[in-house]
Every structure is written in C-alpha cells, then in structure tokens.
Amino acid sequence: MISPSQRALEHVRGLFPEASPVPAAPITVNFHPDRLLAGGATVAERLAGEGVYRSQFETGISNGGLTAYPGGDRDRWEQRMFGGAYTGAAGRPLYGGLNLACYPDGASPRFGSCHLVLAEAVSLRATFSHGDSFTEPAVVGTATTFRGVWESLLSEVARTGRALNLPAPGPAEWVRALGVPRTAAGRAMDDYVEAQIHGGLTLAADVTAVVADPSFRGTPVEAHLRALGSPLRWAPGFRLAAAEFPAELRGPEVPALAAAVGERFGRETLDAELVGRAAREPSTWAGFGGRAEVLQLLKYVWHILVLRGEPAG
Q1: DSSP 8-state assignment for residue 133
Q2: What are residue 17's phi and psi, to 5 degrees?
Q3: Whether residue 221 sits in one domain with residue 122
Q4: What pTM does this model have?
Q5: What Pfam families does UniProt report for this protein, alphabetically (predicted)?
Q6: Predicted pLDDT at 142
C-alpha cells in the first residue's frame, strides 16, 4: 500500500508525464520565526525544540490564508491538486518556493522574513506549480516532469517581459539572467514557482541553511534559529520609515497602523523584528479591528516592507 505522499506524486506525474528535469535550484521555505503558536512558544522556538517543520493544518497559523481545516479552501485545493491523497491534519504537504533566481530573500518572501534552504534531495519528493495553489493552477509538475511549469514561465516572459520578478527582453535572456549571482533582494511577492513538499521536513536531514532577517541579530530569535543545527546566514532584510508607508498598495489603514507601531515602540523605522513584536500583542491595536483584522493588516505592513523597504543589513 503506497503512502499519501506517494499517491500525490504519482497523481501529479500522471497529469504531465513527459520527462523533463527540474533545473538545479533549491527549494526555500519562507516563514516568520517570531510569530506565536498555541501555548505561547514562537515558531523558531518550536522548530528548535521539535526539529520538524509542520503544516498549517497542525500549527493553526499561516502567513497566507487561514483555510487549513477540513472542508476549508486549503483542504479543497489539496484534494483537487493531489487526487484526494490527503485526509486529516497529519502528513499534509508543506509549502515553499523553487528559488530559480537564487534570491537572498527566498523564493516567496511574502510568507516570511526568514527562510529554510532545503537539501537537493527534497526536490525529488516535491510537486511544483507556477503560481500559488490558491489559484488552482492548471499546470503542475515534479522534479522529473517539469516541462509544463518551465514553459509556463517562458510564456510569461514572452508575454510580459518578466517572470519571478526578473525582467528580461525575451525568454533566452531570462534563462541566462537566472544564473547571475545576486546580493539584492528579489522581492518576488506574487510571482513564484510554488513547491509542495510531500513526506515531511526534518530539520537535521532536509535543511542545509537558515537565512534570517538582520533585524533578529542579538535577539532570542537568533538563538533559536542557531539551535536548528544548520548554518545561519543573513539576508539583506527590509526597513522602511513609518511615514513612508503608502496607502495605495494595501489600503489607508496600513500606513496608519505602521505609524501607530512606530509610535508605540519609539521607532521611526519599521523592520521585520518590530512587525513581529506588534503581531505578538494584537490587542494593542484594537482600534484597527479584531484580532484577525489586525493580524491581516500587519501582514500587509510586512508586504509593503518587502515591496518598498530598503536593505536593513
């Protein structure tokens, strides 16, 4: 009897069976290390204690949508994408991005200020889609059947002049540009190859590096990230003056909240660590709505840091 993860992989291979290997690139898993879990531990603290990365179905938190429960949107998307392979909360796929451009802020920074860099072997048990699974993408692939996803990327370049937030005059130039070493953040907020990882993630076996926002230097988060057992590297990071948050990107409440956070903590400039502090005390911002509304607005604050922030390192 095959496992749910094997069933999911076989289902996706069957949709696009033509042999075509995935380009050599690491999967990265972006996350916010300082968000609180049930029980009061931070994400980084729990990772250090357990040595296992868990799905939204188990943690109950998300840096995207909060629909990971039986009958929720995430459950429905996974049922469709993976041929009904998964039921229950345990053993669900985990989500990251294929970092084809080797961006130092990871493949999908909208989901977190830090990221895990996964071992090459993890790609062999991953499925891929051009775009987030919430869009229910029609084109998917695996490490050995990647052609459909690759052609979707090249088509986007031909149509728009960019893919993965990497501009190029045409597909050939874009492919060459992928191999250029980068030190600047990619800021690929909405344009990434999502990786769905099947079979779990054990930090000791599956992670080759941890990359953190420099605002966490000297904090308990740094200590917990170092305890994960992989080399710790520093990303460029993002910082932006509270007065420079625009209203047009995520609505007028976001710059107002950014100003309130800066005032509360006596800081003119916001960064990942400060946004995390604000997220750990949502009742402080009750004037902006209930807990869920405040946390959503703080996600938007983070999005604008990624889109408009200057390097913090």
Answers
A1: G
A2: -80, -10
A3: yes
A4: 0.94
A5: DUF3626
A6: 98
